[in-house]
Amino acid sequence: MSPDPEIPAAHASAGRRFAIRIGLFYGTTLGLAGAYLPFFPVWLKAIGIDSSWIGLITAVPSLTRFTVLPVVTRLAERMNALRGVMIVASCLTLLGFMMMEPLRHPLALFIVFALTASVWTPLGPLTDGYALKGCARYGLNYGPLRLWGSVAFVVGTLACGLLLDVISGRNVILVLIALAALNVLVSFWLRPLDQEAAGASPVAASPALLRNPVFIAVIAASGLIQGSHAAYYTFASIVWRDAGLGGFTIAGLWSLGVLAEIVVFAISPRFTISPAMQMLIGAAAAVIRWIITAQEPPLAVLAAVQLMHGLTFGIVHLGAVGMLVRLAPGHVIATAQGYLVASNGALTAASMILSGALYGSLGQGVYYVMAVQALAGAAIIALLLSRLNRSGPAHA
Prior knowledge:
Layout: H1 6-46, H2 51-58, H3 60-65, H4 68-78, H5 82-100, H6 106-120, H7 123-138, H8 142-164, H9 172-187, H10 194-197, H11 213-227, H12 230-242, H13 247-267, H14 275-293, H15 299-306, H16 309-327, H17 333-362, H18 366-390
Helix pairs in contact: 1-7, 1-8, 1-9, 1-12, 2-17, 4-17, 5-6, 5-7, 5-9, 7-17, 8-13, 11-14, 11-16, 11-17, 11-18, 12-17, 13-15, 13-16, 14-16, 14-18, 16-17
């Protein structure tokens, strides 16, 4: 019997539909992050929260990444219900931001934001796990799908920056609520993957992941490198605004970094260097970036330095995900991604709290601490590079 020529065409069409839907979901998810990350601290300051509390509150999402998040990703994968959990998480995230809008007491904000972050932060690894499963199913490349999230991050940052020039900082939370609502709408357009729709039997997360020293090295190094962005995420917008920069200029500086990230994701299918080497390059770039940032460079130099974000975040993220694909069986890829994000969250949370404590005395000098942290991540990858390059796919 000759093969049906319509089957490959139908498969390709299904792949295109999947790519559009997950691209839009990445877009709305990271569009919200694009408005949140630079300007949520500005909102906190505008409503009268002091710098120590800002450091603690902005560290909350990172704290949930290594506490609640791994539980959520493992549960979703055991239930073969990534899409359903993503929809519920989107809805609860919107509810959480709406509940925060009238709050002004720092402890109340901390508590409500902790609950919100507990459902919001799992969206990242859940979406990555869903996307990676779809990539394997339809023969797609991860980087070009993920770049739409980065594009939306830029749009969200620029839009919020423009609005900040005409609205009070106290109204930033309304922008976040609107973007969270858009994310909810798009979440309902996602479709179950074939294995979910077929009612595949639940699978347990492989405990071998946490017994694999190479896997531990990868998530630890990623956590150190990504966590070195903590001072930037927490205080960059505040410093730039205090220096007299307008909202659109601040948004532009953030966007330059993400534009570089987009380029990295777009050309990632052409990369020939190993994922481990990608992580090492990104770590070295982070050391250089934070040392330069600590010098309080002029705007022109700062703009050039921001372009290094494509390496310090983008290529490190791609390298870490590439290593996970090698090390984790396909049926636990979302769980492995959850462990990666948990490591990133633990070290970012610690770094944010440390940055909040040190910023008052060190000012921009806190970036030297971030440089040392990135150097530690580089050292782990450099010491284990030969072993990482020899590592093949893990077996359940």
